[in-house]
Specification:
The chain is of the alpha+beta class. The chain has 22 helices and 36 strands. Among the domains are: 121 residues, Topoisomerase II, domain 5; 77 residues, 2-Layer Sandwich (Gyrase A, domain 2), CATH 3.30.1360.40; 109 residues, Topoisomerase, domain 3 (Orthogonal Bundle), CATH 1.10.268.10. Helix 3 packs across helix 4 and helix 12 packs across helix 15. The mean pLDDT is 90.
Amino acid sequence: MISEEQQKLSAFSEKAYLDYAMYVILDRALPHIADGLKPVQRRLVYAMSELGLSAAAKHKKSSRTVGDVLGKYHPHGDSACYEAMVLMAQEFNYRYPLVDGQGNWGSVDDPKSFAAMRYTESRLTAYAKSLLSEIDQGTVSWVANFDGTLREPAQLPARLPNILLNGASGIAVGMSTDIAPHNLREVVNACLALIEDPSLDEEKLLDYIPAPDFPTGGELITPRSEIAAMYRSGTGSLKLRAKYRIEDGNIVIEQLPYQVSGSKIQEQIAKQMQAKKLNWLDDLRDESDYEHPIRLVLVPRSNRVDNERLMQHLFATTDLEKNYRVHFNMIGLDGRPQVKSLYDVLSEWLSFREQTLRRRLQHRLGQVNDRLHILDALLLAYLNLDEVIRIIREEDEPKQRLIDIFALTEVQAEAILNTRLRHLARLEEMKIRDEQSALSEEKAGIETLLDSDKRLRLFLAEELRQDGETYGDARRTMLVEREAASALDERELMPSEAVTLVVSQMGWVRAAKGYNVDGASLNYKSGDGFLTQASGRSNQPACLLADDGRCYTLALHDLPSARSYGEPLSGSLSISAKQKIIAALVVDPKARYVVVANNGYGFAVAGEDLLSKTKTGKALINTGKTATAFGMYGPIGDNGRLVLVSNEGRVVLLDVAELPQLAKGKGNQLIGISGKAFADGTRLAACHYIEDGKDVALYSGKQKMYIRQRDHEQYQATRGHKGQLLPKGYRKIDQIIAIDEEQNS
């Protein structure tokens, strides 16, 4: 049986964890809707006001403030407390800073680079007055500090909705908050509109508060519909982008997204440049100084670079464009954490402000009544001055005699007895009557406000309007709806140089600079030799066709130099030892090509369908069990011809318009080779694409035969025809070349 001193571990753990969770939620991580502050921030601001560190006062060492906060109100680590203070002083973090600091308080590049608290000095900003000006006017509830020796305010009597103006972020137990900062003038205008018409919804409020306003500026590119949805639900995301301009052909970045450092941007861009993945950019300079806190200069490689497209790539690959989570989670007036919509935040804060204003007026009314009460007694004393003096001189208990004779209260009698002789002059009586008249008028005005909710709201609105004019400023974050950024294709970013791909018989590959390269004259490993070559640009992909009809994609810019033996294809591609590469092409994804098998089948294929994103390649031409892939040709136009020659010496000139276009498959029979003939050894021996208007040169060993353009009709046939027989001596064709008519003559 468990005694009263004992309890189950599970019950104790559950209670301890829940107590800890509620403490973190209510007293550490989440801001209160009333003043928009977390406890440590509130205690810092209050302690600074108690030290007399107003905006007009002289700066004082930050360690003095932190010491007061830790010793009196916030018994936690000094570093965490000081960091909270630094955050409230950083203009790039707080839209409306609460602390005015002298010394090193960090920078945009490194917010944590601030000096120690023993070196910096601080005081409150003018804006902080909006949180504190009414604190001694009966507007706040006071609670005991951690050891019960002092009192501290439960919330500050904020005259402005600081919860929206400076925002907040924090992680509690099981919940978090991310409230974006807003523009003061816009928020005040929304409050005024809501006072005038409490039925406004989020869509109407968007006319006054179109979006958050971040301290570092930038461009907010989130569509209005998404912002409206965010304000309705209290949660969502925003996309913020750096602001730049073109100056003398260079790209100058002047504003960065919120909480993004220029040094990190430089690091991200420099990393791409070092990896040779940003060939469009020639140089990156940081020209930031005191007058221009953010000035990053990007120098394009030439004036032909599309600056807009380059920036789109950088937006997509660096923090020049950043997403921000928004979650309006805060502690409400009921003391409970809740995610609130924009309407809920504004209406609940206005309710708090109205309560605060009512308490202020009631407190002042009490002071006025107390003073009028005393003034009545003083005036009575002046009218009966001789009798009052006699009572004071002759009576043993003058206080009680005054109360009995003149029907005074104890407070009034005490006030008369405390009056100095020099205040008994005739002139003082006139001052009392003037003060009494002024206070009576003030009392009537206060009572009128307290008796009418409408007049009270109008008075509240006027104070809001005045504060908006005093502390408001222009919007910094511009609203520009844009499409989401997309990164450049890797091939667009590579240097575009003339290269020749060389493939050896044993599957080794390399790249030589230039087009005029004789692959057969290069050095090869013992037992290896030249197989094929293809020319193109270094930023283009190459396609390799294996004998089993499978094709593979190779990046030319990654290949070793032709001065070496190269590298085996098996190192970068999943090619088995049984497969043999039989053809290679440098591919333009927008062009068309022809692929054929040695059984005479083939088809046209788009360049993009030849490319594969994986090492395993893709199936291209279906060769069946007995045939093999023969080759790839192109790029082809709309009016060219395909020259096909069988090993029997038959030739077909086929219009490419007759070719079917497929992404993969077997295709159609281009030259007639029957199944029986194929079984008997008939094969496709040579194939070549010629443009319209070209002559054809057929090579058989050292002999050469021309088919002039005017004779093309003799050899031209429809798809699947077995072709015309070539003259004797020219039936073993080794090579086909397209030549101009002038060369032929």
